[in-house]
Amino acid sequence: MKNLNLRKVQIEKRKVVFFLVVALSWVLTYSVMSPWRTVKEIHDAILEENVAELNKLIDFKSVRSSLESQLKNWAQNRIANYTASTLDVGGALLGSFVLAAQAEQLLNQVSAEGIISMNEKREDGITYSVAGLLEDYDLDYVGLNEVRIKVTNSDGDVGYVFMKRTGFGSWKVYRVYIPALNKRA
After folding, report:
1. At residue 87, does pLDDT exceed 60?
2. Measured between alpha carbons, how far is 164 from 173 in angstroms, rounded to an integer?
3. Cα 159 to Cα 178: distance, rounded to the nearest angstrom
4. pTM metric for this prediction
């Protein structure tokens, strides 16, 4: 009788250990796979034109800030090269004002509404949108709490979108990096 009770206790312990291992595996899998789920949520929100969901998943203020610094550096490099090659300081100054105005217009489009306004529905029923960039991408962990998403457009231009962990299984886009804006001319 004593052996039978001991056997029942051992079986119960194994069940508990098995349950804990399965639960821990599920939790870890959910945590590791959550960035891909977030990318899918962003993709779907763009196609569904869901402004509230995009605002929840993307920190547009931080994204605008990251793009603004890249645009300023790009403009300064262009103006410096123009001035050095032509010695036309007045032309460079005028160019800096034009570039600053264009940069401001571009940065104003970095919003949920701006992303949705880029959706293009053609007569043949094919839809082109920013969401298309999120259909074929590479996602890599940069650290435990940050991932980098490499996107490529139809012209082969590459860009990087960075997300940071905001909770156990939640992520938020906070930075965009465009290599073409950071090349020295």
Report:
1. no
2. 7
3. 5
4. 0.70
